[in-house]
Specification:
Strand content: 25-35%
Structural class: mainly beta
Number of strands: 12
Bound molecules: zinc ion
Number of helices: 1
Radius of gyration: 22 Å
Shape: globular
Number of domains: 2
CATH superfamily of the largest domain: Glucose Permease (Domain IIA)
Order of helices and strands: HEEEEEEEEEEEE
CATH class of the largest domain: Mainly Beta
């Protein structure tokens, strides 16, 4: 009787192990979009390097993060995606952030999140690459344009902002390279 019980237990253990092995072998079942705890994904699939962080010194501020390429992999021309569902609030040609660097910027309104308005801004998009227009609804992961840099001295990068009630926050408190930077880049 005791032997029968141990055989039954062994069979149960084997079934359990096989189940674990099977789930580990089926990555296709894993969702491609893995939002951060804040519900946002990384804005540039394939590119997780941040060259310039969010900072505030006295009256000066760098109100976002600069996401750049890495050795042998230029970020220029790479697809930039909406980090969450939302509505395009504006598409503008500007030269405001990161001195002497020009480009298109897209502002997306994600609506109310826990009683606060959340919006995100994507700056230095390549001229002619912007795929969205004001008032358009976008979904998380949807390409909105391509990273670029029409400026003079800086390396190509995406300047990315997260705003709560219109005020810039440190984006790294909301997004992480773990939530999309290791996905294949969108070309
Ligand atoms: Zn910047």
């Amino acid at each position: 009787m005791k032997k029968l019980l141990s055989v039954a237990l062994t069979i149960l253990m084997l079934v359990g192990l096989l189940g674990v092995a099977a789930s580990a072998l089926s990555p296709s079942h894993a969702p491609r979009l893995r939002p951060s705890p804040s519900g946002l994904i990384w804005p540039v699939p394939g590119f997780g390097r941040v060259a310039n962080a969010f900072w505030r010194h006295g009256g000066r501020v760098h109100p976002g993060i600069d996401i750049v390429g890495h050795a042998g992999h230029s970020i220029t021309g790479t697809g930039v995606v909406a980090v969450r569902d939302g509505v395009v609030e504006s598409v503008e040609w500007i030269r405001t952030f990161c001195r002497s660097v020009f480009g298109y910027e897209v502002l997306i309104d994600h609506g109310d999140v826990n009683g606060f308005n959340l919006s995100t801004r994507y700056v230095h998009l390549m001229a002619g690459s912007v795929r969205v227009e004001r008032g358009q609804h976008v979904v998380m992961g949807e390409p909105i344009g391509r990273a670029g840099n029409a400026g003079r001295t800086r390396a190509p990068h995406l300047h990315f902002q997260v705003l709560i009630n219109g005020r810039p926050q440190n984006p790294l408190n909301f997004v992480s390279p773990a939530n999309g930077a290791h996905d294949p880049p969108i070309r």
